[in-house]
Amino acid sequence: MKTTMITLVIALFTTMGMQAQKAMDQFEIQVDGLGCPFCAYGLEKKFKEFKGIKKVAIDIETGDFSFQYPAEKALTMDDITKQVEKAGYTPITSKITRANGSVETSKANNTELSATSEIVTQKILVAGKCGMCEARIEKASNGILGVTEASWKEEQNMLEVTFDKSQTTLDAIQKAVAQAGHDTKAHKATKQAYKDLPACCKYQRLQ
Amino acid sequence: MKQIYNLAILAFIIAGCTSQDKDQTWQLSETIALEGVNPIGIAASDNGIWLSDGDHNRVVLIDDNGKTLKVIDSLDRPMHIATEGNEIIIPQYGNDEVIRFRESAKTVITTKDSLDAPAGVDVRGNEIAIADFYNNKIHYSSNGTDWMTFGKEGKADGDFYYPTDVQITENEIWVADAYNNRVQSFTKNGTHIRTVGVDQDLNAATGIFVTENEIFVTDFENNRIVVFDMAGRFKQEIKDGISKPTDVLVRENKLYVTNYKGSNLTAYTLKEALDVIPEEEHDHDDHEH
């Protein structure tokens, strides 16, 4: 009888353990701008502090950042994007494999062109200072409907952006970049947006 | 005759000054490849050079050719390490522990206040100093038991914005105030003495090494080492072979630089500076007089 009870208890705990293991969502994020080890390890460290987070792994060389999180908390793509951005990083692509097997992926650029599209390429001054800035500025630009390509060069502090004039404007792009924390000629980042940038991204503000 | 004699002495003095003033500068002498190591911190020992390899959670002891002699692994993001005798002292950024390794025996250094991402440590006899990255503080103990802290987040003298490295010299504590892009020195009571490098447009002063005559600072994003004299005056910029430098060390008249992105160690020796034609002479013909 005693043996049966022990077996049942072990079986129960094993099943519970398996269920607990199954009930984790897997998050895989490609993060850009992981050049500075202090900040990159900081991202890993800060995520480790989340209650319930498991198997946090970061590969500095490839920018692959992954972890598991309890499925019951139903962490969304938006939540995770915001959290990574809050830590100062820019998620380029994200993939969530839910505990039930379903897969969600993010898309970097949703712009679709039509026959009436009027494509132009323009350069604008955007303040920044490192690879992480580059990723953030390009992500903010690419996130605007109408933008097809964005490339920021650290040496010149210039953003070259290609966009459809029928869908967006250069002013709207500058506004989005400023909201991400980077001063442009037309729009300045708010004090809070600048403050929220990680240490290595604290560029010299434009006058 | 006396005038000729005086002129001869003057000429002799000028010649002497010229040869002395033909300053020696640090020049690249070798590049030591580090297979699979992305070095962050560096410290010297009798047996070789210790390097922290944060990406791979280990520290490695190498010989002068870069050959790995010993590995301590299973660490959690080791950063700017230090050595003292046969000991290696390792700050672990990932788990907030600073540990001492002697042979294979490990002890944890207990500070009065908790740490949040210790990024650098230095030991000098019984003295220990720790750069506490996220708390923007330096923890210092003169005897290894009693601790004091100084610093807070900010930009004023004595404040820090993510300190990453620290060094104890005879009378001062030097701090790489990384994201304030400067170096600061303090008395051993934590009183600010001087700030160095603010005029050099540093972009992340991640590592420092101070000798009797010079202050070496890594300028991480600008891929260079900047050398200052003890008064904080600019002396030299070193760019040869540098790729995302994280730490510096002077050992046996050689300057070593850990290149995080280059996965190598570059060594520099003091050599007579090459003659450089002053900029004015270059541009002479272009000016209108």
UniProtKB/TrEMBL annotation, chain A:
Keywords recorded for this protein, A-Z: Metal-binding, Signal
One Gene Ontology molecular-function label: metal ion binding
Domain of life: Bacteria
Pfam short name (any one): HMA
InterPro entries listed in its UniProt record: HMA_dom (IPR006121), HMA_dom_sf (IPR036163)
Annotated signal peptide: 1-20
SUPFAM superfamilies for this protein: HMA, heavy metal-associated domain
Annotated organism of origin: Dokdonia sinensis
Positions of the HMA domain: 25-92, 119-185
Protein name: Copper chaperone
Keyword Thylakoid: no
Keyword set includes Metal-binding: yes
TrEMBL record, chain B:
Coiled-coil regions listed in the entry: none
Record-linked SUPFAM superfamilies: NHL repeat
One biological process term in Gene Ontology: protein polyubiquitination
Domain of life of the native organism: Bacteria
Keywords noted in UniProt: Repeat
GO molecular function: ubiquitin protein ligase activity; zinc ion binding
Repeat (NHL) residue spans along the chain: 150-189
The protein, known as: 6-bladed beta-propeller
